[in-house]
From TrEMBL:
Organism of origin: Aspergillus flavus
Pfam families with a match to the protein in the record: Amidase, DUF8016
Signal peptide stretch: none
Domain (Amidase) ranges: 159-363
Name this protein carries in UniProt: Glutamyl-tRNA(Gln) amidotransferase subunit A
Segments forming domain Scytalone dehydratase-like protein Arp1 N-terminal: 33-122
Superkingdom in the source lineage: Eukaryota
């Protein structure tokens, strides 16, 4: 069978690069042009007001869309209720300053196109995608849709290599093609997905060249991605992760692929956690609305913290994990990243509820403050977190309740042994969470790879360590770990944070996720991280209790960078937990809280909050994608 020919066309208008999708829109041929040319489609429902409609549309396109520009007015298609030549003169008057060369008038009844920018080629209109450089190294595979809206293909295009020689290029469609409505508020919403999630048409790589080699492109989407596509979301690419979503230190543990860059502060801080690429993309690029990640033991919460974003680990089983590479079904969850609380709440409804559900009018009445995790110091960072907690108390009209989990544990005696909570839980994740990683994924993968290629797969240092360590966990240890996990969950729900009732949690619990201290990506280590999950820390609370925990960026603190020898700014973030099943309620509450306390959403680039002070800062990253110096060959 002869190979099927396909074309990938990259074009430039001024200094901005574009991708012309190879599949044209349906409809009758327009004009007789042989060369590719930019074009804008307008719809005129009332031909008597053509001038007003065109003027308003040009202003609206420029305000709402980062793909369209006046350069697309070189050719214009006017869709009207009838092909009345009377509107041509009105259009010529409005378009004269833009040097429009051709105006085509078509009837809406012959098949309306979405308004916006296109490329006119051989009489056909092809969707226009703007190309952006992935200078943060967050993406592993940019994507564009196929003719099947639920299936994608890798983007075969490159631009800006002269400025960003090692960067991939990401294509985004015009926002004008998909107009959000009250019934479909997510139409055209751009999202990136972590590369342990199956996306139809692409390979799932999980930061492993061997795993990528072993499996062909997926033919189905992970269920959570299928759900979002059905709501109108558009996937613009797959994002980097640690290998098999395990725990790795940048940059030393990243072997198969380079770690993404955290844009905050001096640009050389750790990205932290396996959803590193997802967080780096949202923190770097204004043109990306959301990104999906997963959290087993902190892989959404940690990246959200160090990159100054909203992120949430939801309740266990709040949404499907089918079609995603697992670690352990005891704690694997899907969540997202956002730059402002209102959008974050909408994403939560898309993932875990319904946009049509009424908002929660009742507020929690209790705020828990576990003293063993809060520092008794008075640093600049501590003051930022304390200031936010005071605002939270005022918002709720209650004062925090200081508690000691260890004291409550000792008083209530959930086990017969004379043992502290921390000691009792020391090996719980190590014994209960790790065995399934070996039995259900890593061992079958290694076996299949050896049977296929006659040799073992290459593994990053952390996974090399895990390959030797995981089989040493005994069945007895696993059984004991599961028992202790179950006992802790029951005790926690009874004495600390009860499950939600009808989606509402009356109690919140606060945790100090950020430290105010830099953590550089270029730190030399003695060896791989050798993470086993041993120990008990505050980040274990929500996985063990199966409830949601959201990260809120509430400010930033300064430090002197050893990279830039200048004052830089680190995000300051707090974690808020609530009862299991209160995912939508928690993010709705956070949106109301941040609005009432006038805490703005975060920006992209080196500083999450640009207006907190006027001190200058240096950064490798532009504060806005619109300010990028886009030039170079393509």
């Amino acid at each position: 069978m002869a190979a099927q020919l396909s074309a990938s066309i990259t074009l430039r208008l001024g200094e901005t690069a574009y991708y012309m999708h190879q599949v044209p829109e349906q409809g009758n041929p327009i004009g007789v042009n042989q060369m590719t040319a930019p074009c804008t489609v307008f719809t005129l429902h009332d031909t008597s007001t053509a001038k007003e409609v065109l003027s308003e549309s040009i202003e609206r396109f420029g305000r709402l869309d980062d793909v369209w520009s006046p350069d697309f007015l070189q050719n214009v298609v006017l869709q009207s209720l009838s092909s009345q030549e009377s509107i041509r003169k009105d259009a010529e008057d409005i378009l004269r300053p833009y040097n429009t060369s051709s105006i085509y008038i078509t009837s809406v009844s012959s098949g309306a196109l979405n308004e916006g920018p296109y490329f006119l080629n051989m009489g056909r209109l092809h969707p226009a995608y703007r190309l952006y450089p992935d200078y943060a190294g967050a993406f592993i595979a940019p994507t564009v849709p196929t003719e099947d809206p639920y299936c994608y293909k890798p983007l075969d295009a490159a631009a800006y290599r002269e400025t960003y020689p090692s960067s991939l290029t990401v294509a985004v469609p015009s926002r004008l093609y998909h107009s959000p409505t009250p019934e479909n508020p997510f139409a055209g919403t751009r999202v990136g997905v972590k590369d342990i999630m199956d996306l139809c048409g692409l390979r799932t790589g999980a930061s492993s060249r061997a795993y990528t080699q072993l499996h062909g492109p997926r033919t189905e989407n992970a269920e959570v991605i299928q759900k979002l596509l059905g709501l109108g979301f558009i996937v613009v690419g797959k994002l980097k992760t640690t290998q098999f979503a395990d725990s790795e230190w940048p940059t030393c543990d990243y072997v198969d692929y380079h770690a993404p860059f955290n844009p905050r502060a001096d640009g050389y801080q750790t990205t932290s956690g396996s959803s590193c690429g997802s967080a780096a993309a949202v923190a770097s690029y204004e043109w990306l609305d959301f990104a999906l990640g997963t959290d087993t033991l902190g892989s959404i919460r940690a990246p959200a913290t160090v990159q100054g974003l909203y992120g949430m680990r939801p309740s266990l089983d709040a949404t499907s994990f089918k079609g995603i590479i697992p670690y352990t079904k005891l704690a694997d969850t899907v969540g997202g990243f956002a730059r402002d609380a209102t959008s974050f709440a909408k994403l939560s409804r898309a993932l875990y509820g319904s946009i049509n559900d009424p908002p929660f009018s009742k507020k929690p009445s209790k705020v828990l403050y576990p003293v063993e995790y809060w520092p008794e110091t008075s640093t600049e960072h501590d003051a930022v977190l304390e200031s936010f907690i005071v605002k939270l108390e005022r918002h709720l009209g209650v004062e925090r309740t200081r508690i000691s989990l260890e004291e409550i544990w000792a008083t209530t005696k959930p086990v017969h042994e004379n043992i502290t909570m921390k000691e009792y839980l020391e090996h719980v994740f190590e014994w209960a969470g790790n065995p399934s990683q070996w039995k259900d994924f890593l061992s079958p993968f290694i076996t299949k790879y050896r049977n296929t290629y006659g040799r073992d797969p290459a593994l990053n240092p952390q996974l090399q360590f895990k390959r030797g360590y995981l089989p040493t966990i005994t069945d007895e240890q696993e059984k004991e770990g599961l028992k202790r996990w179950k006992i802790f969950k029951s005790w926690y729900e009874t004495n600390i944070l009860p499950p939600a009732i009808d989606g509402f949690s009356d109690t919140l619990l606060l945790l100090p996720w950020s430290t105010g201290k830099p953590d550089y990506r270029d730190t030399y280590r003695d060896g791989p991280q050798r993470f086993t999950g041993i120990g008990f820390f505050f980040y274990n609370l929500s996985p063990y209790s199966e409830g949601p925990e959201a990260i809120l960026p509430v400010g930033q603190t300064s430090y002197t960078s050893r990279i830039t020898n200048s004052t830089e700014h680190l995000p300051a973030s707090i974690g808020i937990s609530s009862g299991k099943g209160s995912d939508v309620m928690l993010t709705d509450f956070i949106a109301d809280l941040m609005t009432e306390t006038n805490i703005q959403g975060v920006g992209v680039g080196s500083r999450a909050f640009e207006n907190i002070d006027n001190m200058g800062t240096t950064s490798l990253y532009p504060q806005s994608a619109a300010q990028l110096p886009l030039r170079g060959d393509f």
